[in-house]
Amino acid sequence: MRIPAGEADIRKESWDLQSQEPLQEDNTIKWTVTVNNNPTKTVNGDIQFKDVLPEGLEYIAGSFNANYKGKNEKNVQVNGNELIFTIKDLGKNKCTIT
Q: Nearest Cα to 6, choosing from 39, 42, 38, 37?
């Protein structure tokens, strides 16, 4: 993830939606990335978000959601096992990506 001038706190969490251990074939894993978890910090410009899915996982089409500044963005670029999304002008807002 490339972050422009300013600072942002970033946290990534993931879990198995079926709550089975160990993971079983065809389980769905949900992950959440929070960008600028501390909205007292300002992020100037756009953030290029990029996440690489580990080998053996696949993206479920239409499942991406970025929530920030009162809107839900679903337009993610999928390139093989990479998910790429541009967070526009985040400022002092928090962006939650699921």
A: 42
Helix (H) or strand (E) holding 81: none
d(CA 61, CA 76): 10
Span 42-67, pLDDT tens digits:
888 888 888 888 887 889 999 999 99
- Residue 11: what residue type? R
The token pair that represents 54 in the structure block: 């580990």
pTM of the model: 0.75
Alpha-carbon span 95 to 98, nearest angstrom: 10
- Measured in whole angstroms, the distance separating CA 98 from the mean position of its chain's CA atoms is 6
Rounded Cα–Cα distance for residues 88 and 76 (Å): 13
